[in-house]
Amino acid sequence: MNLSRAWNMSLIFKSSLFFPSFLSSALSLNPIFSQVFIAALAFSYFGKTFAGATMKSSFTQLERRFGIASSTAGFIDGGFEMGNLLVIAFVSYFGAKCHRPKIIAIGCFIMSLGNCDHKIVTSYAWIFVLLGNLLRGIGETPITPLGISYLDDFSREEDVPLYISNDQNASMFGPLSGFLLGSVFARLYVDVGFVDVDAITISPTDSRWVGAWWMNFLVAGVVTLISGIPFLFLPKSLDKKEDASFLDKYLVDIFHMCMLTDMFFPLPPEFFKSLKRILGNKLYLILLCSSLLNSSSFIGYITYQAKYMEQQYGLSVSRSNFITAVAVLPVVLLGMFLSGFIMKKYKLGILSATKMGYAASFIGFAFTFLYLMLGCDNHPVAGLTVTYDGNTAAQNPISLSSACNSNCTCATSQWDPVCGENGLTYMSACFAGSGREPVFHNCSCIGKADAALKNSSAVLGECRRSDDSFMDFLGKPYRSTITNMVDLSFIRSVPQDLKSLAVGFMMLVIRSLGGIPAPVYFGAVIDKTCLKWGSKPCGQKGSCRIYDAVQYSKLGSLKMPLYT
Q1: Could you tell me if 545 and 415 are in contact, meaning their C-beta atoms sit under 8 angstroms apart?
Q2: Spatial distance between the Cα atoms of 353 and 496, rounded to a whole number of angstroms
Q3: CB–CB of 389/396 below 8 Å?
Q4: At a CB cut-off of 8 Å and minimum separation 6, what does 407 contact?
Q5: What is the superkingdom listed in this entry's lineage (predicted)?
Q6: 377 phi-psi bin (left φ>0, alpha ψ -120 to 50, beta other)
Q7: pTM metric for this prediction
Q8: Three-state DSSP class for 439?
Q9: Which DSSP category does 378 fall into?
Q10: Coil, strand, or helix at residue 257?
């Protein structure tokens, strides 16, 4: 096997142009074991992306359950990449010398263990969720490098791209299923089965609602556990071919993620010379930076998209996850498919692909202004976003207290919102002017905002928001097109013999500088827009209860220049 073949394998990782039927194109060597391995590998690809999607669909609920900020939740999410990077070099190199199917099975079992911290609730219980995600990253490590090298070693060369594409196509259904499952469980209260559901006074749209997020992880654990079982019954090798050199096999084993260290094994001298050559390629470096910004923005986008819809449109966590699954992800995948189809049909070269990529980039950038123009106004909350008279900050200064509740001595750390007849939300019945007792009538502040109201009553929970401006979805196909175009230009910018190393180095940079920090700094910026923080029983700061929707919308548009 030569480097050109390794390059062809790495290219198919970035494209999903084919929808193969491996049943009609069986391997010529040990067809039963081969087809079992192909099906099992495809299911493991589905399992790992499914588990990742369940994590992202539970973001808001993790924040509320453990009283943490978005940046902390982003750090938990980055634990997967940390675990993966910790062992990728070790697994890729030494795993290739062992029983690869069994190593993959062990990895799947470890992934399932990473989902077993679901019912721990203490002040710092989020650390256990982080460790579980770290464990999931470790378990995912052998699936790609060992699975693909196993396919490559024991299959015909012309069939390998077909089978890899099949795995990639299977992995696409993971995020869809994960967010749909998250939507279902988000409608169930977190302690379902342990409390009387009829006694719960808040609804799924309430900012205090926590869904049964732990069920997501239970199902993900079962799926990843099952995905590892078939690998236990596969042989260490089929009909082994003897035409692969050590360097070729080494490159194929680790091209998905090239660890630039000799901590575990000595690297060949040619490695450093090759690395110097690709780092001296200015076009490669420019496209590498572009890919890093592109990937970082997309990671931040998909991580907090459901949260964005919750804050902008007043949707429940359940509905936000559902829309992400049926409206956002399919459009993103459609954009990726169309870009690959166009490149294949018209046989675009590096210059044409680059031009098309930047044309799509410009169209995507134009949709940035839709974010700014179609963003929603702040939810009217007395003392936070509007005055007690219902005026905005531009008209009058906003103060948390007013003459109508000045004698009530309300707790400013409290967040038990009520909705007044006047359409304003109040932080609590006390702030609505009902006194310190939890009553919901004769509230003096409600009558102040609207003198025509006679009863001045309120109901428990926030007032319903209504804003159906989902125009931000329009730009997604164009933005997704950019990814494949940049990738094609990227891998064609280096000589043929360096393409495997170039792809490996790109994956290292994206995962270490994009996958890990992106959710953290995007979350930190989102935290800056928080208007009201919750409080834990111990008095420490909890999760955010309400955000500045206007500022949040602007931050959402800032991701677009990075992406484009």
Answers
A1: yes
A2: 18
A3: yes
A4: none
A5: Eukaryota
A6: beta
A7: 0.77
A8: coil
A9: P
A10: coil
Quick check: helix, strand or coil at residue 435? coil
Q: How confident is the model at residue 75 (pLDDT cuts 50, 70, 90)?
A: very high
Q: Are 381 and 424 in contact (CB under 8 A)?
A: yes
Q: Which 8-state DSSP code applies to residue 379?
A: P
Largest CA distance in the chain: 89
Structure token digits, residue 297: 């923005």
Q: What is the pLDDT of residues 184-214, one digit of tens each?
A: 999 998 888 777 777 787 888 888 888 888 8
Closest listed residue to residue 207, CA positions, set 399, 412, 65, 321: 65
CB 228 within 8 A of CB 46: no
Q: What is the rounded distance in angstroms from the CA atom of residue 381 to the CA atom of residue 393?
A: 12
Report residue 31 as tokens. 């067809």
From residue 492, alpha-carbon distances to 172, 287, 454 in Å are 25, 11, 73
- Round to whole Å and give the CA distance between 506 and 510: 6
3-class SS string, 146-188: HHHHHHHHCCCCCCHHHHHHHHHHHHHHHHHHHHHHHHHHCCC
- Alpha-carbon gap, residue 114 to 130, rounded angstroms: 9
**Bridge partners, 419 (sequence order):** 425, 459
**Residue ranges of the alpha helices (H) in 58-159?**
59-66, 70-94, 100-113, 126-140, 143-153
Contacts with 276 (C-beta within 8 Å, 6 or more apart), sequence order: none
Which of 492, 254, 494, 337 lies closest to 15, judged by CA? 337
Distance of CA 30 to the CA centre of its chain: 38
Strand 418-420 to strand 458-460: parallel, antiparallel, or no bridges (unpaired)? antiparallel
3-state helix, strand, coil in the chain (%, to 5): 60, 5, 35
User: What are the tens digits of pLDDT across the range 348-389?
Assistant: 666 777 777 677 767 766 666 666 666 677 888 888 888 877
Full DSSP string of 489-554: HHHTSS-GGGHHHHHHHHHHHHIIIIITTHHHHHHHHHHTTEEEEEE-TTS-EEEEEEE-HHHHHH
For tokens 């963003």, the residue is: 375
